[in-house]
Amino acid sequence: MELYICEVLRLFPPVQIEHKYAIKSDILPSGDRVLSYKFMAFNADPRSCLSKNTSFIPLKIIVIALLWNFHFQVVEGNSMRPSVSIMLHMKHGLQVKHVKDREYKKRP
Predict the structure, then answer these.
(1) Which of 5, 29, 57, 58 is deepest in the core (most CB within 10 A)?
(2) pLDDT (mean) for 7-36
């Protein structure tokens, strides 16, 4: 479950803008490696968020409860285009149908 949540946060970070910047110009020596990935939701090691593990507990509980009790399906014809802004949200909203799991299993 944690890997699933991490991947969702990596692909769709709630805050899309990185506020860090260089104080002065710097040239990396030849051969230095710069990691091509970033995990913006909690930042990357060694300066990662101290409460990352604590925040995952209620997040896991909520996701598990929703997935256990409901079946979700994106409404047909709904375009999933993210809006360009500081916070991630869909340009035209994201319409989703949800059905209680018991009702979904009764369907033929």
Answers:
(1) 5
(2) 72
Q: Which of 17, 106, 14 is nearest to 59 (CA)?
A: 14
Give the DSSP per-residue string, the chain: -HHHHHHHHHHS-SB-------SS---PPTT----S---TTT--TTS--TTHHHHHHHHHHHHHHHHHHEEEEEPTT----B--SSB--BTT---EEEEEHHHHHH--
- Closest to 103 in 3D by CA, of 75, 74, 69: 69
**What's the pLDDT score for residue 74?**
85
CA distances from 22 to 6, 27, 55, 87 (A): 27, 11, 29, 23
pLDDT score of 28 more than 60? yes
Mean pLDDT over all residues of the chain?
Answer: 76
Pair of tokens at residue 100 = 């209680």
